[in-house]
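Ticket #4471: structure output looks truncated?

Reporter: J.K.
Steps to reproduce: submitted the chain below (435 residues) through the standard prediction queue, then opened the result file.
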Amino acid sequence: MVKKLFVMLLAALFVFSNQWAGAAEEKKELKRSDINSELEDLKHRVEDLEKRVKSTEVVDELGHKFHPIHSIYGLKIGGGLTVTAQGVMHSKANNQRGAGAISADIALESPVGKDGRAVAVLDFRRGPGLQNLPSFFTSPNGNTSGTNADIESFDNDQIHVTQFYYEHNIAAGLTASIGQLDITGYFDANEFANNERDQFLANLFVNNPTIEFGGSADFYSPGIRLTYGPVEAMDITVGAFEGNGDYNDMFNKPFLMAELNFKIEPFGKKGNYRAYYWNRQGRDSLTNTANPNDTNLLRAENKGVGLSIDQAIIDTIGVWLRGGIQREKVAQFDRFVGGGLNITGESFGRPNDAIGIGYGITLMGKDYKDYKKSSSNFESGPEHYMELYYNIAVADAAQNTGFHISPDIQYVMNPGGDTNATKLFIYGIRLQTFF
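Returned output as attached by the reporter:
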């Protein structure tokens, strides 16, 4: 009897020990699983944080104006500060005192849902720039082919909301923007001649002067644009904007534009070949038209075509070309062609420096020539414009980041198409920082 009880006790202890060991092992496995799960979750959190918190990253704000963007949890902010100082020397030794200007812009971007984003751009500027110069050619809406494209139409202590829009990726390769937009941000871009903050300062080397852009004097306007890239090597952009940017009579005098861009790489060197057509139905002022006495020009249609080409030749040299025509019945000038070189400093140990050389010629329309001759002793001739700048990257700052210093010289013959006008030699310097 005792022997049977002893055997039963040993069996019970054996079963209990196996169960206890199994439970302990199961508990250990569960604990190990929990730890692995927590580690995996922590790993995902770190990866997500790395994605959300980025160091300085250069992004293309509106097609050609670059900002170093800092982002945290999807909200992006960046901008730049530009200081310019210029003086002018007349060929007849009639020197003029110099003038300066300062401008700053801040871009704010926030994601909206999965495929959208809201963008606001704030601008500030003080300083009139050079004054009392002989008249340059102007397009019908008054945008001059002047010496400093960084000069905005406002000059006060206020912060201006120049752009405020919503952008959405509708489908693969199809993007739309709607709101107050910078028209030049979507059309007539150029890799080497399109940014007054670190490339050419003269207006006619920043955008094609033979386009009567809609919007305000600074090209800001309510509107919509669509960009579709059916293949990687090509995209198509179309846009419709209000003619004067004041939100009144929005559909009476629209500005319409369409552009086709081919992105090709001959011999492995990147290039862009853009061709565009535009149309504008009327304007608000006769001041800068071919005949300021002809009231019919307030309602006259203006249209034109143009191209913008940039092509890398070798690793250190690129070439650019821009040209266009518009109606001589409306505009003071009807033809423009310009081009030049972009040279990096890599060959002399300064890889982040850049040298820009530009030349442009603007030709007067027949109607404006007849108007000028009828009112004064006027001898017409093509306006010749030349510019040379050297962009010095301080502390080896990369393009569109850090601090840059750019000495700049410009030379103009026959300003405004007047062969009797004084030739101009304009010298200056630009200080640019991106933040």
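Triage note (M.O.): checked the attachment and the full token line is present. The longest strand covers residues 96-112.
Status: closed, working as intended.
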